[in-house]
Amino acid sequence: MTVDHEHLVSMLTRLKLTAIRDNLDSFLDEAGRQDMTLREALAFLCEREVARKDERRVRMGMSIAKFPAVRTLEDFDFDAQPSVDPHQVRDLATSRWVAHGDNVLLLGPPGVGKTHLAIALGREVVHRGYSVLFTTATGLAADLAKAQAAGRLDDKITQYAKPRLLVIDELGYLPFEVESAHLFFQLVSRRYGRGSLLVTSNKAVGEWGTIFNDPVVATAILDRMLHHSHVITIKGESYRLREKRRSGLLQKAGPAPASPE
Ligand code: ADP
Ligand code: MG
Q: What SS3 state is found at 40?
């Protein structure tokens, strides 16, 4: 039986099997060289197609998530941050907490790696096939306020309620206006029981009343966030300051530095 190449390519296009289509000759050569059975050849072709689709899905997921930078767990120096339990982070990296609809809170002073871990964990969640959106607390508050002013609050809250994981970075750096706190509460309520939150904050949970300018709203928000949550409290000094200090120490071993620390 002779197979018309064009016909084959057009069927592969129609079936959206683009990886097989684009590499047809080389894949068929490979299958021939390895003397594959038909079943093996089919599996080989499917695996290539699945790999291409996975790659595309992850790329799309990362771009939809709008992470502000690339930070990975491989790049995170656990030795530099002994207050972070590597087992707990690796367990969270499985993204089971997202499957269960749990929340993660990353607490600690500036520079200790909260945003780094938030992005790194968010990327793992994308790899597992869940939708993720990264935002900052101030960006989120401004966006909700703007939507409310334009009479489109409900649409906006629906939009933020959609991703399986919403990352809210830097909660507490700036206190919320009372109005913003209420909008934030509406969002947290809408997401409650439907999707996960990953929140980073430089404020301990006990200080959240001051973030929201209203202890009642703060309690209501906390109540929903802490239900089924994993809390990582990072202690210690800023990673960059520590690195600077270290390089300073290293320099001191050589010729005397010009200026004291
Ligand atoms: P935070 O959000 O807690 O203020 P960041 O996550 O922004 O801190 O960390 C500040 C910088 O230091 C970032 O560039 C981050 O990648 C880096 N950093 C922080 N902690 C670590 C760590 N343990 N290992 C590697 N890089 C780190
Ligand atoms: Mg940060």
A: helix
Helix locations, the chain, DSSP H: 5-14, 18-22, 24-33, 38-65, 86-93, 96-99, 114-127, 137-149, 153-161, 178-191, 208-212, 215-226, 239-253
The pLDDT tens digits of the residues spanning 42-68 come to 999 999 999 999 999 999 999 999 999
Convert the pLDDT of each residue in 144-196 to its tens digit: 999 999 999 999 999 999 999 999 999 999 888 889 999 999 999 999 989 99
The ligand that comes nearest to the alpha carbon of residue 80 is 1
Kindly tell me if the per-residue pLDDT of 254 is higher than 80: no
Taking the domains of the chain in order of start, what are their residue ranges? 5-64, 73-237
What's the mean per-residue pLDDT of the chain? 92
Which residues line ligand 1 at a C-beta cut-off of 6 Å?
71, 75-77, 80-81, 108, 110-116, 239-240
**Structure tokens belonging to residue 95:** 């993204």
pLDDT of 88? 97
Task: Tell me the ligand closest to 170's alpha carbon.
Answer: 2
Q: Could you tell me the two tokens for 57?
A: 């899905």
CATH topology of domain 73-237: Rossmann fold (3.40.50)
Tell how far the Cα of 117 is from the centroid of ligand 1, in angstroms: 8
- Contact by Cβ (8 Å): 230, 97: yes
